[in-house]
Amino acid sequence: MPDDLYSIWLKVAPGPRPPDHYALLGLPRFCQSQEQIEAAAQRQLDELDRHSLHNDIPRREACHRMMNEVARARIALTNPQKRAAYDLTLDPEHKPKPPAPIPSVPTPPPAPAFVSPPPAAVSSSASAEAAESPKHAAARSNPLVAAAMANPALWIVPLICIALLAVAINHVMRQSPPTTVATAVSPSSKPSAPSISAPIAKVPGTTRGNSTGAVQTRPAPNMAAPPATTGHESSATTAPAVAVVIDKSKLPPPPIDVNLKPIPSADIREKSSKLVDQVYGDDLAAAKTPAEKAALAKKMLGAVGTLGDHDGDRFVLLGRSADLAVEALDMNTAMAAIDAAAREFKIDALKIKARALDVLASNLTPNQDQQALVRQLDGVIDSAIRADRFDIAAYVVHAAQIAAKSVNDPVWLQKAELRQKEVEDAEAEYKKSVAAPLHATN
Predict the structure, then answer these.
(1) Nearest 5°: phi and psi at 345?
(2) Which residues lie below 8 Å from residue 363, measured CB to CB, with a gap of 6+?
(3) 188: Cβ–Cβ under 8 A, 6 or more apart, which residues?
């Protein structure tokens, strides 16, 4: 009888296999707490990540399958509508608890009406007005000032709104111009530390063969340090905590989005994809081995320059070239294709490179060029720090740690852990700089 890995790895109680979403995450059935669901899902992913490089191939494949199950459970249970539909599949008579009522905010009293006193009251109040201070006398002579003194909410609330707006503008101005990639990306793992959990981000409108099944992917980690490894994984010691001073002026400048073209529409990409299939259909069907796929990726990348102004064809061909290169573990061609696309189109090159390098690092072998991979990983980490995209930087650092453990390189592992400390310090410095204007307004 095969081992019950759900019980061994995730401490899931005996029952149906695969278990339902709540049992898989170790939660009580019909749990509605977003915080508990997020924490439980991340805990299970962290535990499975320890076994993602298991020496036993069936267990490694089971680990990847269970990671996907945890990711699907997180997506279903963190969305109230999806969770309600899923709960009905477990118990058709289940009625979800109504959400807690939102406390009402008391409406501030209306401003006093400014009506001149009747003639009869003028004589009776003359002596009181004579005893008023100059400040109050000025307030009574200006209706707006009198209204502000009578109802402080009239000026305190706008002042707070202006302060918050200034903080938001400062935050937007510090970040690089937004770019988009039309790919399906799963929701972030935590609101404070989003992660990248989609499959390898590629140029939309393309298809990718996976006949060999050799390329592995993994879910994105959280921002915390990865859990300690046991058993088959590396036993290298962790590096001591080192105080790191971040000097962003020494990092390479981020790419400048000047005159970049928008991503072609879905219709154009679909037509271009059909054309690429017609031209390279035989080559794609014949490319079975990594060497054949790498050769075809280079051939496609070289043909991009002959397409002139056909943006859709160029976009799709660059995507196909990058995907084939990643499948073949050809890092140089993959990075060249992504860079070529980033020089022309408004894509999220940092995110695409992070996912590609994650696949390359997860499938690293001792006979591959490790130093070249280290340089690429460091480059993406530096660019992500400079762009204040610390989720991507932490994700790539984690990929470097996995690669270092897979080849049992303690020096590389120590460097990766130092880089993790650098990313954490840079993020803390950034959060402090963002919070400073808010404290100043208070």
Answers:
(1) -120, 160
(2) 214, 215, 216, 329
(3) 194, 195, 197, 391
Structure confidence at residue 5 as a pLDDT band (50, 70, 90): very high
State in Å, rounded, how far the first CA of the chain is from the last one.
65
Q: What DSSP element (H or E) covers 285?
A: helix 266-286
Question: CA–CA separation, 419 vs 223, rounded Å?
Answer: 13
Q: What is the pLDDT of residue 392?
A: 94
Q: Does the predicted TM-score (pTM) go above 0.85?
A: no
Close Cβ partners of 322 (under 8 Å, ≥ 6 residues apart) = 202, 203, 297, 333, 334, 337, 338, 341, 352, 356
Of the pLDDT bands very low, low, confident and very high (cuts 50, 70, 90), residue 111 is very low
The pLDDT of residue 419: 92
Task: Calculate the dihedral angle through the C-alpha atoms of 339, 183, 69, 22, rounding to the nearest 10 degrees.
Answer: 130
Which residue in this structure is represented by tokens 């095969």?
2
Which burial class, exposed, middle or buried, applies to 154 when counting CB atoms under 10 A from its CB (0-12, 13-18, 19+)?
Answer: middle
Q: Which segments of 311-389 does DSSP mark as H helices, in order?
A: 311-327, 331-344, 349-362, 370-386
- SS3 state of residue 295: helix
Q: Which two tokens stand for residue 363?
A: 């499938």
Evaluate the omega torsion of the peptide bond into residue 219 and state whether it is cis, within 30 degrees of 0: no
Residue 159's pLDDT band (boundaries 50, 70, 90)? confident
Give ∠ CA 386-322-297 in degrees, rounded to 5.
145
User: What one-character-per-residue DSSP string does 93-135 give?
Assistant: T--PPPPPPPPPPPPPPPPPP--PPPHHHHHHHHHHHHTS-HH
- Measuring CA to CA, how many Å separate 294 from each of 298, 300, 320, 355, 430? 6, 10, 11, 18, 40
Q: Output the pLDDT for position 171.
A: 64
Give the closest residue to 396 by CA, choosing from 270, 220, 238, 247.
220
The three-class DSSP label of residue 261 is strand
Q: Which pLDDT value is given to residue 408?
A: 84
Q: Which two tokens stand for residue 328?
A: 């073949």
Bridge partner list, 345: 261
Tell me how far CA of residue 152 lies from CA of 113, 171, 200, 421, 442, in angstroms.
16, 29, 55, 47, 16
CA triplet 308, 310, 314: central angle to 5 degrees? 90
Are the C-beta atoms of residues 263 and 204 closer than 8 Å to each other? yes
Percent of the chain topping pLDDT 70? 64
